Each structure stands twice: as C-alpha cells, then as structure tokens.
Model the fold of this input.
Amino acid sequence: MNPAQHSAAVATETARFVATVKAADLSTPVPSCPSWTLADLTQHTGHVHRWFTELLRRRIQQPPAGRDVDLRLPEQPDGYPDWLAESAAHAAEVFAATDLDAPMWAWGLDQHARFWVRRMLFETLVHRADAELALGLSPHIDRDLAVDGIGEFLTKLPFASLFAPLTAELRGPDRTIRFRCTDAGADWLVGLRPDGFGLVTDHIEARAADATVQGTAADLLLLLYGRLDHKSHAFQLLGDPDLLAHWFTHSAF
Done:
C-alpha cells in the first residue's frame, strides 16, 4: 500500500469506528484494553489523530519536547464519536496539504511524513477492532490491509522500546520465527540475535525457521497486537514452542 491508500484507509477505518461506538453504551468495558471503556478507547484514538496531525502539520525534524496538543474534547462522552470523526477530517486536510514522502523525524525506521499516516491507520484499525470485540462483534479486516499492517508492525517493533519495554528481552542466539499468511502469498522472518531482533530480508524463502505461526492475515495482525492468543485454533504452530512463548511474552505493544 502507498501513502495515498493509507490516507484513504484512515478515513474508512475511523468511519467504521465511529459507527460502532455511536450506537453503543460508551461505559462498556473493553477487555482487550484493560481498565478502559469505549469512551476511553474513543478518546485515546482521537488524541492519537490530533497529536500525529500536529506533528505532520509542523513537519518536525527532531523528537518533540512534549506531547501537548489542543484536544478540544467535548465535555460529555456522548460527544466523543463526533469528535473522533472531526479529528479524522482534520487529519485528512493535513494529509492532502503535506508531501507525505518528505523527510521528517519519526521514531521508526521510515523517517518520512508517511510514517505517521501509516501509524495512525493501524492505531485506528486495531482500536476499531477493540471496540467491536468489546461489543461481541467479529472484526472484519481487509486482507491486503492486514498484510500491510503485519509488515508495519514487524518493521517498527525493534524501535518501539519506549512504548514496549519488554521488547528489550527479545534476544537469542540467532533464532528465527516465521509468520506466514494462509490466505495471501506473504510471510515474514524475524531473527533474534544476541544484540537485538528484526526482520530478515535476505533469501527468506530458503531459510528454515526455528518456529512458525500460520494463520490468515487478519488473524495474524490481531495476534501480533495481542488481541488473539497464539494457542487458539486460529493458528497452526510449528517448531519450538518455548521460542514462540518468549516472543509473545515480550512483544506486546
């Protein structure tokens, strides 16, 4: 997917999120985000939109000193869904006025404005799924979007220690884990080294993995974000179970 597709998908995913929570009791607990309600989930997602949009508007070139942003949050939670929709609309205006391929500071590998659009997209998508799961619904995630999300997750995770401190424990004596989609021709090989971890990009098809997880793209995306258990019937597990347990214990984001 390209930045224009990511921008359009932010709008689509936000609209689905808003439609889900607008018809719901916002005091409903969100089991996949412990201690949060749907109101908290909606507020958090809108905060992300407004903060990332401000970073893009300023096109910052170094880490920001703080995270203050004017949220313009409604006084009552029942106004949160419309407020989230407004946040996405404002983001779309900034996307359209920004060269998304322009250099820009980001905490991940991709040091361009497009990093923030893609990150906003998957933050919104996963939390839309959280809202649906909280209401007993089965989230539908487009296969191509899920494939892109898996790649984004595995690319950013080695740089996410500030948000996911347990990733510092993802070390190993040159051990590998493969994530393979059963409904798309895509797979990813992650290498755990004594000094860290990251995607293996050279000749991955020919390399055997020490452990493999197979499932649909949508299920793998939710698995990586901790919304599904790797021991569920949705996945086929091959290889070293201790290595997989180590990964899922320390890769939470």
User: Anything to note?
Assistant: The chain has a mean pLDDT of 95. The longest strand covers residues 175-181.
